[in-house]
Amino acid sequence: MHWDRLIGVIPAPVTSLWLGPVHGQVYYPYLPCASNLRNLTSLDTCMIDTEISHLVLSPSIRTLRRVYSSADRVMLAFDQLECVERATVLERLDIVCFGETEKEAKSMLEETASRRSNPSLLLLSLLAFTHVSIFTRASPPIHWGPCNSSSITNPAILCSFFEIPLDYYDPEAGTGRLALAKLNATQERRGSVFFNPGGPGGSGLEALDSNGETLLEVTGGFYDIVSWDPRGVGSLTIPGEIFCFNSTEEHDAFFNGTIELAGIEYTGNFTDATDIEILYSQASIMQQKYKKLGEKCLSGPSGKYLRYVGAAATVRDLVALADALDGPNQSVNYIGTSYGTLLGSWFVNMFPERVGKVILDGVVDPITFATKQISLSGGNIITDADKVYEGFVTGCALSGSQGCPIASNASSVEEVDKNIQSLLQAAHDAARKDPSVAVSSSDIRSLFLSQMYSPGGWSTFANSTYPQLVQAVGQETHKNSSLVPREPSPISMKRPSALGRRDTSFVRRANQSAGVSYTSSAIWCGDSIDQPTTAMLDVFNGIIARSRNVSRMYGGLWPAAIYKCPFWPVRSVERYRGPFNKTLANKIIVASNLFDPATPFANAQKLVDLLGQSAILVTQNGFGHTTFAAPSTCANAIAYAYMVTGKLPDGPTVCDVDAGFELFQGVNTSAILANMHVSGL
Ligand SMILES: *[C@@H]1O[C@H](CO)[C@@H](O)[C@H](O)[C@H]1NC(C)=O
Ligand SMILES: *[C@@H]1O[C@H](CO)[C@@H](O)[C@H](O)[C@H]1NC(C)=O
Ligand SMILES: *[C@@H]1O[C@H](CO)[C@@H](O)[C@H](O)[C@H]1NC(C)=O
Ligand SMILES: *[C@@H]1O[C@H](CO)[C@@H](O)[C@H](O)[C@H]1NC(C)=O
Ligand SMILES: *[C@@H]1O[C@H](CO)[C@@H](O)[C@H](O)[C@H]1NC(C)=O
Ligand SMILES: *[C@@H]1O[C@H](CO)[C@@H](O)[C@H](O)[C@H]1NC(C)=O
Ligand SMILES: *[C@@H]1O[C@H](CO)[C@@H](O)[C@H](O)[C@H]1NC(C)=O
Ligand SMILES: *[C@@H]1O[C@H](CO)[C@@H](O)[C@H](O)[C@H]1NC(C)=O
Ligand SMILES: *[C@@H]1O[C@H](CO)[C@@H](O)[C@H](O)[C@H]1NC(C)=O
Ligand SMILES: *[C@@H]1O[C@H](CO)[C@@H](O)[C@H](O)[C@H]1NC(C)=O
Ligand SMILES: *[C@@H]1O[C@H](CO)[C@@H](O)[C@H](O)[C@H]1NC(C)=O
Ligand SMILES: *[C@@H]1O[C@H](CO)[C@@H](O)[C@H](O)[C@H]1NC(C)=O
């Protein structure tokens, strides 16, 4: 194993350090360090924003060892103690050091030095030209064999493992492994296409099992389709699924009596004063619970892995895997859906020269994620969820009582919506009287949200699940005394399994038999920006605001991984913060449904705008999460041509969903679109 230590070692003692310039700019004058940083005594690391550029080290700290930097942060690590956070990227020290090129850096450095002859500047200059490289190793050949995993049912899929360093910058952190799966190319093999289904925390093995054949078709059979359980996922990859409790029972007891188990009850657009008061009454207890949860996660068996499960490491895994399977320095082909697009936008910008054929479908907004607190903003996730709901209600009304029972006796969209809102109101009122009711309004909202992902299931949902909900809520409403033994609910609702199975980007509860998974939280929160002063009340206020302004139906859903982020105990060792507008070696496709409940169309537009000439937008005129949610011969043909011949449409392209695809009896996508008002419901 050969590697260069990633960081300069600073010969102690130093008493003062000048930092600051990023992207070739020198800041004058340097600002004094924040006062709380002046008196460092026992801190192992000190993170300072680049604006805070002059750090005076207290006499007791003379063992500064390493400097890390990224586009937006500089971090100092002190002797013997591990870094809690490490700033990003490849070019890290070049960025600290005043220039993209050595020449530029030198001249800027000299200029700076001439204005301020400070010895510690020279100290930095040594660092400036310490070229950093991550360690590389010749990976052993990958031997494919039969899959032992219960997630794999397709006998054509082969499995293997791939060793990874836990930390690409620190071999001392040890190694892990990825569980791999692939479908062989059926034509003359041109390489691999790597696939990530999203989540975060979705299993690549399961996704390959269910979507592999489709992906083979779309790519013409010329590529092996390869996926893997990323860090933090499943029981085969190491680090595997993140657990913080020994059992589901322990989890339930820990959160007994809180919204974590019961969800949030509200009606309309969350304007009712009592609803708000009740939510607020949980603020301090939930904040304590989440802090305690963080401690449990950190001290539990997954704790030592929390900092290694982030997206940057997963991107490096992808590239290392491509090196091993397709040869070093070859272009990397990748299809990412949902959260897989965040991996994708990090990948193409971290390794622009390695970009081969890439399709990103159902886009998570990388800029918002890199710059905003997703716990407060919701990360632009559900922006269009109510529009999809309007699509559902419109389709139901168009189909009428013959095709959609929710429309019974109702002819208009407004009436169908009113039926659903009445059901929510009744469930809400019942849950207010007895919080232990089998079906709360929060449960119904979760179930509806999960339906928004797949329009192909709308008719079945309206025919079978919805009437059961009506029945269950009816029983709750007519039951006056909580002494009456509860009837078993027709549907198990407390943990909607539809949500757990699906890539929701929002709520994920994987493998309940093994306990409650915190993989999604670990990945979202490990990579999210720091939010030290955010209180639970702020998170709640964001929820109320989104219920009023963004999504009346789904704004108040709880829990969601992203709300744990202010209280999460660690950040990932590497977080990519941009830029997201690099020029790529190959043009990529960015695809989106017009109305996607979890990844709004605007995100795709934003990513394409960022990538300029390097990306082309394909819009699918329909509903659901990612274009895979509905069949489109047009979208498939574009993907096929791109993967097989390299040909792309000349400009942004709009595809229809196939006309024969019925969402309700006699109602196809274009019929719904033609009748939507989007979304004044
Ligand atoms: C499958 O099981 C065998 C025997 O237990 C083991 O040697 C092999 O590594 C396993 N392979 C995979 C891909 O899980
Ligand atoms: C997959 O392809 C490899 C290499 O071409 C070949 O050795 C192997 O037998 C194939 N496996 C299956 C299941 O088709
Ligand atoms: C969870 O398991 C660990 C290790 O087995 C044990 O030390 C701990 O006490 C358990 N916690 C609870 C609450 O049962
Ligand atoms: C939750 O609390 C209630 C009353 O406070 C108690 O009766 C119940 O046993 C608790 N449930 C669990 C799982 O601890
Ligand atoms: C891969 O590319 C890098 C940078 O262009 C180059 O330094 C390296 O030698 C290449 N490695 C191989 C094996 O071609
Ligand atoms: C529909 O109308 C019928 C007959 O008027 C009535 O019995 C039934 O309760 C109505 N259903 C709904 C859901 O309003
Ligand atoms: C739902 O019920 C309607 C009316 O009976 C029927 O036409 C339709 O096929 C059903 N949908 C599904 C998916 O079974
Ligand atoms: C779920 O967890 C159980 C218990 O750890 C394990 O036996 C099972 O294989 C897991 N299922 C999946 C799909 O990972
Ligand atoms: C709703 O959005 C408007 C305009 O963006 C904003 O001014 C207002 O404060 C928001 N309301 C809430 C409750 O957040
Ligand atoms: C919230 O709902 C009320 C009552 O339906 C309505 O009057 C109000 O305009 C809604 N507010 C927003 C911001 O949509
Ligand atoms: C990328 O974005 C940055 C910051 O927004 C901007 O300064 C830079 O000019 C952009 N680069 C390209 C190639 O567009
Ligand atoms: C789709 O719906 C439109 C509008 O109702 C209709 O004109 C068209 O014939 C439908 N297509 C199919 C294949 O059913």
Automatic annotation (TrEMBL):
Residues 477-498 are annotated as: Disordered. Residues 554-655 form the Peptidase S33 tripeptidyl aminopeptidase-like C-terminal domain. GO terms for molecular function: hydrolase activity. SUPFAM superfamilies: alpha/beta-Hydrolases. Belongs to the peptidase S33 family. InterPro entries: AB_hydrolase_fold, Pept_S33_TAP-like_C, Serine_prot/Carboxylest_S33. Gene3D superfamilies: alpha/beta hydrolase. This is Peptidase S33 tripeptidyl aminopeptidase-like C-terminal domain-containing protein. The lineage of its organism: Eukaryota, Fungi, Dikarya, Basidiomycota, Agaricomycotina. Keywords: Hydrolase.
